[in-house]
DNA sequence: CGATGCCGTCAAGAAAGCGTCAAAGGTGAC
DNA sequence: GTCACCTTTGACGCTTTCTTGACGGCATCG
């Protein structure tokens, strides 16, 4: 079932969306503000996010950026403001669509279908093989010999950046920026620490990695 | 370069779109009606289609269906009609976005960016051939006869400067500045050392280089 | 014809980066 | 409040890389 997260501070709208989406076969969760929305997204791992920009606690683009840090799920923005500058800012921050209130519920559902159609039935199984382990980035599941392997949030972020650039070298500065934030430039010991943990959990012989490779002085690379 | 196909029967709009898209770095083709639009799509294989629904010869959903038969490129629909039923029909036929006229050109460009962002980063990085070796600067990979060749960070920087100026002579001072920093002016022994290593790793006959050439007293040159 | 740069090569010591272990904060769950 | 888990630090061998020096060959030029 397709999971949708609705982030909206107006109870009527959130309720209306929940009812309509549920009636059309979606699994719906809701959150009333940006912080709880981000936490819910981390917990639920939704396939699509409907995000109201008029949240009380955070700026809309911040929420989008927070989501885009570790999720590629489509983001459909709702907003009362119709100004083009608002739309452009939201879209360039990482949103996929922008609908101004008041909106037609049928049109919104159609846009939800269009957004999920792209990422949903894309015949590509989002499962990546790393040696004897398999990683499903969308479902956030790692299996190894039938058993499930648990990864911490930081390990997921780091692994996702590497897996989304198969074969390509990712510089250590870029890794630090994308996982820890723009203020981290020289904390390469973080990378050493978490790369070692990932190798322990994924590689067949962690001391001699075959898929999670180190390029000394530059960064790391995932080789399929 | 990202290829965009504009299908619109109104010359002013088609022209305005062409100008704006071209100015933002897209490669634009245009078609005045549905039949020619489908033919143009087959010919240029665009990465994104901007489709006006008010075409003289075909219904909009027919054009969308014709495209979706073989292409997964995002379709951005333009229309004068704001009725929800129209939007729902177009989106469910396979369109990715729907913008009603009159539209803000900046917003349209933002929606184009959002649409291409999704399908965009699946691309191939450019590779440069050096004799029997191939260099991928973006992925930081060197292959030679199937096997991977490892370069150190300094070797990469030096090679990158040369490869980004194909055929051009790069002075020794400039090389030293760009690889080691502005304080290095006279350490030409560094260049000798690392050029020799690059030739050993890349050239077929390191003693007689064909692509990484020395210009005595001046600098070095990469000949493709 | 000898002298003088300049380049290519080889061989060390110096320095930096990596993997690993261990342990101290923080945070949420119960 | 306690506990468990995750994150953040610190420190230490070890390997790789960078830096530095020295030597011979080759061409140019006086």
UniProtKB/TrEMBL annotation, chains A, B:
Give the DNA-binding residue ranges.
125-224
Tell me which residues bear 4-aspartylphosphate: 52
User: What biological-process terms (Gene Ontology) are attached?
Assistant: positive regulation of DNA-templated transcription
Residue ranges of the Response regulatory domain? 3-116
Please give the CDD domains that the UniProt record associates with this protein: REC_OmpR_KdpE-like, trans_reg_C
GO MF terms listed in the record are: cis-regulatory region sequence-specific DNA binding; identical protein binding; phosphorelay response regulator activity
**Xref: Gene3D superfamilies:** 3.40.50.2300, 6.10.250.690, Winged helix-like DNA-binding domain superfamily/Winged helix DNA-binding domain (1.10.10.10)
Q: What is its main location?
A: cytoplasm
- Keywords annotated in UniProt: Cytoplasm, DNA-binding, Phosphoprotein, Transcription, Transcription regulation, Two-component regulatory system
Q: Where is the OmpR/PhoB-type domain?
A: 125-224
Q: Where is the signal peptide?
A: none
| Pfam families recorded | Response_reg (PF00072), Trans_reg_C (PF00486)
Intracellular or extracellular location(s): Cytoplasm
Which SUPFAM superfamilies does this entry report, sorted A to Z? CheY-like (SSF52172)
- What biological function has been recorded for the protein in this entry? Member of the two-component regulatory system KdpD/KdpE involved in the regulation of the kdp operon. Upon phosphorylation by KdpD, functions as a transcription regulator by direct binding to promoter regions of target genes to positively regulate their expression.
Report what the protein is called. Transcriptional regulatory protein KdpE
Species name: Glycomyces paridis
């Amino acid at each position: 079932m397709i999971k949708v997260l609705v982030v909206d501070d107006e109870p009527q709208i959130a309720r209306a969306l929940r009812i309509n989406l549920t009636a059309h076969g979606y699994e719906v969760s809701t959150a009333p503000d940006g912080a709880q929305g981000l936490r819910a997204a981390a917990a639920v791992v939704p396939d699509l996010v409907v995000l109201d920009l008029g949240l009380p606690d955070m700026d809309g683009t911040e929420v989008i950026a927070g989501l885009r840090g570790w999720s590629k799920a489509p983001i459909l923005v709702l907003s009362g403001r119709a100004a083009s500058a608002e739309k452009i800012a939201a879209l360039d921050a990482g949103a996929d669509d922008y609908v101004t209130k008041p909106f037609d519920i049928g049109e919104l559902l159609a846009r939800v279908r269009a957004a999920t159609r792209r990422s949903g039935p894309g015949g590509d199984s989002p499962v990546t093989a790393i040696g004897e382990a398999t990683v499903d980035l969308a479902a956030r599941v790692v299996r190894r010999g039938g058993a499930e392997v648990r990864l911490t949030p930081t390990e997921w972020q780091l692994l996702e950046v590497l897996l989304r650039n198969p074969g390509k070298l990712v510089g250590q500065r870029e890794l630090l920026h994308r996982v820890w934030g723009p203020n981290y430039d020289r904390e390469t010991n973080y990378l050493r620490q978490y790369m070692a943990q990932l190798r322990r959990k994924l590689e067949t012989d962690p001391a001699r990695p075959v898929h999670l490779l180190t390029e000394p002085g530059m960064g790391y690379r995932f080789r399929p």
